[in-house]
Amino acid sequence: MSVLIFAELDEGKLKGSSKEAIYYGSKVAESLGTAATAIVIGQADSAELAAAGRFGAAKVLHAADSKLTEANGMAYASVVAAAAEQEGSTVVVLAKSSLGDAMAARLAGKLRAGLAANVVDLPNLSNGFRVKRSIYTGKAFAETELTADKKILAIKKNTITPEEKEATANVEAFSPALNDSDFVLKVTNTEKATGDVLLPEANLVVSAGRGLKGPENWGIVEDLAKALGAATACSKPVSDLDWRPHHEHVGQTGIKISPNLYIAAGISGAIQHLAGVNSSKVIVVINKDPEAPFFKSADYGIVGDVFDILPRLTKAVKAL
Amino acid sequence: MKILVCVTSVPDTTTKITFTDNNTRFNKAGVQFITGPYDDYALARAVELKEKLGGTVTVLNVGSADSDPVIRKCLAIGADDAIRVDAEPTDAFFVAEQIAAIAKQNSYDLILMGRESIDYNGGQVHGIVGELLGMPSISPVMQLDIDGSTAKLTREIEGGKQELEAQLPLILGCQEPIAEWKIPNMRGIMTARTKPLNVIPPAGNDTLTQVVGYELPPARGSVKMIPAEEAETLIRLLRTEAKVI
């Protein structure tokens, strides 16, 4: 009856958010007096799979059928459901992500499982099975009891900091029968930025708004991000104006992020923008308008011209 | 083309969230409720597809009579009729079962909804409905066109986007820029008053989760302002004080 963790790969490597999920799952397993098993789908080498042990997985089930190379939430849900059945798992843990969200919802339907999304803390088992999850786009939390026998927890980034240990997981091949009905979507084109830090995975984020005056000025944002090893993001108006792609838009109707550091340059801080970023650990606001509402929600603020400040910050980072 | 659009009635995005009854109930006092912003995108695209291809758009909400203004607005924007399942939308599985029960009685070509509601942000309902109906579900969808019985669509993925083709019927969670939000005109508002809004009782009562209490995030400490001429100090503070770089 192990706790099952769906661990996601990005280009053959375990995603950082999935390492958090494995560690989180191993802590849940400890509380329940059982072990943690990770299910990994797609191509990865055996050393990478065994490394799941460093984060607390005793065992890794590896589904490497070549039909599963394309990220497919429906097929993945069927594989994870089969793994849960084989392992007798009643708790499934995963990290929130584009693929994880699609997978988790289908899995909840298959297993009639109670699903809590955006979980921000380990479960409280003293009175039923309760978790704290972020709601109203980060403006509040709900203590939620999962009343069904089967439970799925989709955890938000930075919910837990994994403590690594010297251990390797036993890797077992896992080859459940695949259903043709899960392979009915035909992918005709994929455009994905390569080599950059993925925004939902990033620990550090440099974001900019209309204060940058035009897409041609984004070089100073990218320079600071590159120096820090950060991802770049933007406000909704910037994405609406097509200065930046939609997958960089953070806020109420964009991506919600919870990095360690969020630097906002030339963003005034409308409540809808704050909603997407207010679970960041540290917020820095740089704006020439001292009355910008964002300063009220910041940890550090600089009133100044972004065209002057950003290059100086980049230089200071490089000098570290 | 027969389209079902599922909409939520949610607090306006500028709402200051508070709770009452010892933090066990959302405080509705003074709160303006709106159609879920993502649902609004789904509805706008549904109306555009209807105008182009013919057919009908039905709006579905699971909620109390408090949702009626939101539903009437959807009718004013161009939906033909509406169904309200008279129950509190307490849990994603419960809402998904209501949608699935209605979909089983009416063969829709498309079931559209927002990628997530902006109150609970679960983003689960489309996937659960898909599973209950044995139909494909895709989210978040940023572009949608219909060519005969084939849907051509674009979904967002981490760090990019992906184009897909799939056969109808489909369930889609939608987001911008699938369509421009529509504002009802006077004629729409007048005709919406006489369009059918059927209120039906819920099918079943299955919930798999239950909220037992709420809390607000702790307030952030006060902001530390750094003079522009000493901006470089920020980097040192981020390393030595905040310890994030």
Task: Give a description of the structure.
The complex is a heterodimer of chains A (320) and B (245). Chain A is α/β, with parallel strands linked by helices and 320 residues long. Chain A folds into two domains: 3-182, HUPs (Rossmann fold, 3-Layer(aba) Sandwich), CATH 3.40.50; 199-318, TPP-binding domain (Rossmann fold). Chain A is 27% helix and 26% strand. Chain A is built from eight helices and 17 strands. In chain A, the strands form four sheets. Chain A has a seven-stranded parallel β-sheet with strand order 7-10-6-1-4-5-11, sandwiched between helices. In chain A, strands 14-13-15-16-17 form a five-stranded parallel β-sheet. The N and C termini of chain A lie far apart (49 Å). The relative contact order of chain A is 0.12. The mean pLDDT of chain A is 95. With 245 residues, chain B is α/β, with parallel strands linked by helices. Chain B has one domain: HUPs (Rossmann fold). In chain B, 27% of the residues lie in helices and 32% in strands. Chain B is built from six helices and 15 strands. Chain B has helices at residues 37-53, 68-77, 92-105, 125-133, 186-192, 233-240; strands spanning 2-6, 9-11, 19-20, 25-26, 33-35, 56-63, 81-86, 110-114, 137-147, 150-157, 160-167, 170-174, 197-200, 209-215, 224-225. In chain B, the strands form three sheets. Chain B has a nine-stranded mixed β-sheet with strand order 11-10-9-12-8-1-6-7-13, with helices on both faces. A two-stranded antiparallel sheet of chain B has the order 2-5. In chain B, helix 2 (68-77) packs across helix 5 and helix 3 (92-105) packs across helix 4. The interface between A and B is large, with 96 and 81 residues.
